[in-house]
Amino acid sequence: MTTHAIDWLRLARTVEIVRVHHGLSERALSDQLGMSPNTFARLRHGEHIEADAVATLVAWLNPIGVPDWIVVRPRVLAVNHGGVS
To answer: Residues with Cβ < 8 Å from 22, sequence gap 6 or more?
Structure first.
């Protein structure tokens, strides 16, 4: 069975690269996206962020040419006869 997972570090790096390329500070980007600046600090430290924040960041990245597969990776789950492990 295949599911998908967020690659947190790749998401953080991608946001950082695109943010800097566009000349935005974390504060300016957080204001533009309606997010807390603390979201970027948590992301930078490899911490999970809220689903709404992930969706907002992916939606911001996608129209400017960064596809969602850059930050979402497939994850194969082992399935045994007793259920999913």
So the answer is: none
DSSP H or E stretch at residue 2 = strand 2-6
Q: What is the mean pLDDT of residues 80-84?
A: 52
Placement of tokens 């970027």 in the chain: 40
Structural domain including 10 reads 2-84
Residues paired with 3 in a beta bridge: 75
* Structural domain total, the chain: 1
The pLDDT tens digits of the residues spanning 22-57 come to 999 999 999 999 999 899 889 888 888 888 888 888
Determine if the pTM surpasses 0.85.
no
- Residue 26: CATH number of its domain: 1.10.260.40
DSSP 4-71: EEE-HHHHHHHHHHHHHHTT--HHHHHHHHT--THHHHHHHTT----HHHHHHHHHHHGGGT--GGGT
